[in-house]
Write a structure and sequence with these properties.
Two copies of one chain form a homodimer. Chain A is α+β, with helices and mostly antiparallel strands. The first copy, chain A, has helices at residues 56-63, 120-125, 127-130, 134-156, 197-205, 243-262, 274-281, 298-301, 307-310, 328-339, 369-379, 394-411, 457-460, 489-498, 503-516, 531-539, 569-574, and strands at 18-31, 34-41, 44-51, 70-79, 92-103, 160-161, 179-181, 189-191, 210-218, 230-239, 270-273, 295-296, 314-320, 349-353, 359-361, 386-392, 422-426, 431-434, 439-442, 469-474, 477-484, 524-530, 577-579. In chain A, the strands form five sheets. The first copy, chain A, has an eight-stranded mixed β-sheet, sandwiched between helices. In chain A, helix 4 (134-156) crosses helix 16 and helix 14 runs antiparallel to helix 15 (503-516).
Amino acid sequence: MYRSHHCGELRSENIGHEVTLAGWVQRTRNMGGMTFVDLRDRYGITQLSFNLEKDEKLCEAARKLGREFVIQVQGVVIERESKNDRLDTGHIEIEVRELKVLNESQTPPFTIEDETDGGEEVRMKYRYLDLRRNPLRKNLELRHKLGFETRKFLSDQGFLEIETPYLIKSTPEGARDFVVPSRMHGGEFYALPQSPQTFKQILMVGGYDRYFQIVRCFRDEDLRADRQPEFTQIDCEMAFVEQEDILNTFESLVRHLFQEVKGIDLPDYQRLTYAEAMRRYGSDKPDIRFDMEFVELTDVAQGKDFVVFDSAEIVVGICAKGAASYTRKQLDQLTDFVKRPQIGAKGLIYCRVNEDGSMKSSVDKFFNEADLQQWKSKFNAEPGDLILVLAGETDKTRKQLNELRLEMGNQLGLRDSKTYAPLWVIDFPLLEWDEDGKRFLAMHHPFTSPKPEHLSLLDSDPGSINANAYDMVINGVELGGGSIRIHDQKLQARMFEILGFTKEEAEKQFGFLMGAFKYGAPPHGGIAFGFDRLAAMFGGTDSIRDYIAFPKNNAGRDLMIDSPSSISADQLEELSLNITQE
Amino acid sequence: MYRSHHCGELRSENIGHEVTLAGWVQRTRNMGGMTFVDLRDRYGITQLSFNLEKDEKLCEAARKLGREFVIQVQGVVIERESKNDRLDTGHIEIEVRELKVLNESQTPPFTIEDETDGGEEVRMKYRYLDLRRNPLRKNLELRHKLGFETRKFLSDQGFLEIETPYLIKSTPEGARDFVVPSRMHGGEFYALPQSPQTFKQILMVGGYDRYFQIVRCFRDEDLRADRQPEFTQIDCEMAFVEQEDILNTFESLVRHLFQEVKGIDLPDYQRLTYAEAMRRYGSDKPDIRFDMEFVELTDVAQGKDFVVFDSAEIVVGICAKGAASYTRKQLDQLTDFVKRPQIGAKGLIYCRVNEDGSMKSSVDKFFNEADLQQWKSKFNAEPGDLILVLAGETDKTRKQLNELRLEMGNQLGLRDSKTYAPLWVIDFPLLEWDEDGKRFLAMHHPFTSPKPEHLSLLDSDPGSINANAYDMVINGVELGGGSIRIHDQKLQARMFEILGFTKEEAEKQFGFLMGAFKYGAPPHGGIAFGFDRLAAMFGGTDSIRDYIAFPKNNAGRDLMIDSPSSISADQLEELSLNITQE
């Protein structure tokens, strides 16, 4: 062992002890005849002191230490003259007797500090240095703890963690698969799983009753800022359950995690149907830390010769409490905000409620005080409030207003990062219409069970069917989602038909699952949580990349190891492959 | 919830309770006016009773239930007339009031019993049915427990579980990689990791101090019976440690697992150097549950005109206690055993120690009684013992004799499956000479540190260098292995050179690691355990396939999902690939 203690361990009660420490040089300071070195490891920082008068050679050696040198020291724990209460070890220091350089270091390309000076690209290339910074270390420690507590809770509830294969079979549904050419079976491919969905259902058919797995999943998508080609799920499935059982079980899991990891008692979960969530918040993952619910004005706003409203399917707005003081400039910025291409509104109508209760709007040309008082009463608006209104096609307008609502929540400080408002969104539609492909797509996935009371609509009006599907949403972030599954072979076959599979395609891709359903499949359902996102939410930030030890960049590239990369001609030949273009 | 209790839960104290159960029909028996159904789930079996007189319709319905039907019943717990003490629920049964078939089942292609009548192929195809059998269920429960206890122990010791990427970079060293074509970077490939070796070293450079991960690894090898293209490792690494620290830490881990999972106190670990293990047992993973150590006869056996011995590099044997009674037929079978192509010996010499202490050998033509008495004394053989001798090239002959020793151990009942004899094999050679490639290969991997005292041999005699490398062996099974790593950039570069890498190759493949070593790499080392094999050892069998939920067959094929399989022309085009042959 290179050390008797680690760098976060020594306290006043150790004064007088002979110790050996090892770690990295965080910083060296020369103060007259003394040299101080901050020695760092995962556990903390301990101050080393070298006295020029007592041991000149040793002190000179200490003065030559560079940042990030790896050293081992022997010495005695002494009381510190100027104590540092911000450090756990701040009351002591080590009077060093022996110093050994275990490894030197070049000067790092950026500083290893909480706030670093390195750009994202260079920090990804030198990930081993970035990982030394406290914020990243704390993130990965948090992730470890979340994983362990998840396993503990679920194991205590009788769940078994069962590993499912990574080399599976490509299915052209949904997102693109990564594929893996087989050498032994030239021209054939495995695929990496987008999720262990069918395997966990097979485990239910196999009688495993309660399954979970913290498991890597893969999706070959064009990456957005917050997506990774490989990501981790907490994947769960239960047999002999109804939706209510799943919601209760996993509410308890997340409650346990908040309690154990953050020491927070999560408030009760609210529930919203998908339809309600869209109507009241314009989003299937509303942030309900604050109200500012949508109010529809269509009936009172139309027929006043304002063509924007009159031609709209919906006129809908929000009331921002106390924001009547917004300046013209601020209102223009809000208009610019909703007109950005990512949001796509054509314009923004506003209406201030003055201190005397009278109204002042951007559409005074079309609406008189009496009209606007109608708005005010619809919103229950009070003096000092600001009403913001959008109009257009229902779905689009609601989505735009959702963005505006979140932005106003931010601007008014209503999205407190220390407040957690958990929510289940339930009763998702079973299908969504794909205008391009002129066909129905599964909103969740093809294994989701229709609500039993909607089964009769399968032939007449499949688009109106709701599913036993649910999402867990906290503070506007979708942490997980799942559904009760189909366990009847005939219903599953019918679903594939509705989704446009031929019998042959369904059989080729999912024959094993439909086969399994012929041998006594129990009712079952489950849920999957995005583990990267869960960790980020617990860490209090949005960037999942900071919670992954070795993330890829937006081009799906690992800048540290420089991958993907070319492979040898021999390898290609063994795999029976040619590259068509480079 | 479809049930108030599961099928392993009800006891005498529940008599009189109204309950709801759900599960699979294991078996139906009609006894006069009564019908009994064994209802099964993961947790156990509960007997259901139906009385023809009390409720004819219900009883008739029960009589129509087929094997593996999924049913739900409501009823009252009553005392069982003929109690079954082998079942936890054997004192009660359920007098059923209501019966609901949740799903029917076709007749399974094999019986769902502890000893099934299904062949391997059909059981893999219908894995969901095979998984219902008790032995497999117990195996996966054991695996879950081993995984959980491993995580608990290591977390308690300050290890962090950190996930490393699955989409990494191909390195032509060692076994073949599975590769993953990149769509976004046409013509380039990721590779699936054979182990997270370089990433865990990077984590040590990043200051994480103690890392572990239970992680899937991939190797595209021509499969042997006990190999899988994907397998799971318990992968561990520690910084600021010497070999002794690693051995102690992971001895404790395995001791903890034996204690928690099997309730067994593991005896002390023995230690053998690689050289000693080869000399005394002819194997780097000897089964030391029994002695039967090798004894070399070269000096006393040569020069007696027996050309087989005289032309041999080594004459070496074992003494099988009490086996002098082996018949001629048994001895012929042993000779056939060592002459099998997998073992490859040319013949077997035996020598019985008679009850009167005299000797009777298969080479009496060449050796007189006095010669044979010399053998006897070398072996410390006693009346009733059987000496078995092989001769030839040293390495080959030792390996052959190892096989014979294990076979004799089996035949003489010396390999008790309830006895555990743990062992560290240490001081492995750093390199092995590859006769085909006329070059050195890394025996462990290119990151293994030479013993410091052997560093001076790097230029003069690299083949004689030993490494700080170690294997954990229990009962002749290698459970894990590891090494202290190189952490000096120059030494690592020199190692690549010795292994025949050009500077460019080394830089292209491992530049990031050598780069990392320039920024303060701490001394570090680690170990990895084969988790599938560990589970099999704890389960008491050799077949790792029975400890994997969804294994592949010897051709690397998943028979249930039928993978690998072809992919669409569109997918190939997107990946910029052509298939050269089918």
